[in-house]
From TrEMBL:
Domain of life according to the entry: Bacteria
Domain AFP-like: 59-122
Keyword entries, A-Z: Membrane, Transmembrane, Transmembrane helix
The species this protein was found in: Tessaracoccus antarcticus
Entry's transmembrane regions: 30-53
Protein name according to UniProt: AFP-like domain-containing protein
Signal peptide: none
Length: 237
């Protein structure tokens, strides 16, 4: 307490000093509970992550899409770590060499787990069948992509050449045996696509087609003369 005098000559005024009072910290129990819960959740998440890493196993997945019927190579696969699951069919990385050179029994999407049933235990071509190679210019094959396993027909666009290729002594379709497939002035040979590739510069399509052995010479000879085209039959099964 003190006395303060006024400059105008009036009586001094008594003043009181104000002492600051310390404010009591307010507690926020809800914020404290939330903080504790966040800490616990973080710890639990870290523990789960550590446990999942510790129990992960190596598995084989497809590096690129695998098509049914294609020849498998080591470049088709990549090894990743996944959590073990009894419901999953997984191939251990050590079995990759045993898959190389075999044919895929079904499609596998890129990044998909490679199952134990991916490889087909079959030898191509089987008895009574022959694989022929076809080099086709644009216009002699469908505009849509052909896939391994497609049912196709090799169609001879000039029957005289085709029939002559199938039966050298014949000059018309009537003189060619019925087994060659020369009917109504047009020869067709059914087959199955076993490999597909294309020259992007020229759009030349290269096909390997499995056909009956009896018709292989006719189809291959006509194709070599540039007198053959390929048509795609239904993909319905």
């Amino acid at each position: 307490m003190g006395m303060v005098g006024k400059t105008d000559g009036s009586a001094p005024v008594e003043t009181h000093a104000v002492t600051p009072v310390a404010t009591r910290a307010q507690r926020r129990p809800l914020l404290l509970v939330v903080s504790v819960l966040l800490v616990l959740l973080g710890a639990a998440g870290g523990a789960l992550a550590w446990m999942s890493i510790g129990t992960a196993v190596d598995a084989v997945v497809a590096r690129t899409p695998i098509q049914r019927g294609q020849v498998l190579s080591a470049d088709d696969f990549v090894v990743v770590q996944v959590n073990p699951d009894p419901q999953l069919q997984m191939i251990p990385p050590g079995q990759i060499p045993s898959l190389v050179g075999q044919r895929a029994s079904h499609d596998v999407a890129a990044g998909g787990l490679v199952p134990t049933s991916v490889a087909a235990q079959e030898v191509l071509p089987p008895a009574g069948e022959t694989v022929i190679g076809l080099s086709l210019a644009p216009g002699f094959y469908p505009a849509m992509d052909l896939l391994v396993g497609d049912q196709v027909r090799v169609v001879m666009v000039e029957p005289i050449y085709a029939c002559a290729a199938g039966a050298p002594a014949a000059t018309d379709s009537a003189a060619v045996p019925a087994s060659s497939g020369c009917l109504d002035g047009q020869l067709t040979v059914p087959g199955v696509v076993v490999s597909v590739s294309m020259d992007s510069a020229s759009s030349q399509l290269f096909l390997a087609v499995q056909v009956k052995q009896a018709a292989a010479a006719t189809a291959a000879s006509a194709a070599a003369l540039g007198k053959a085209a390929v048509v795609l039959d239904t993909r319905e099964r």
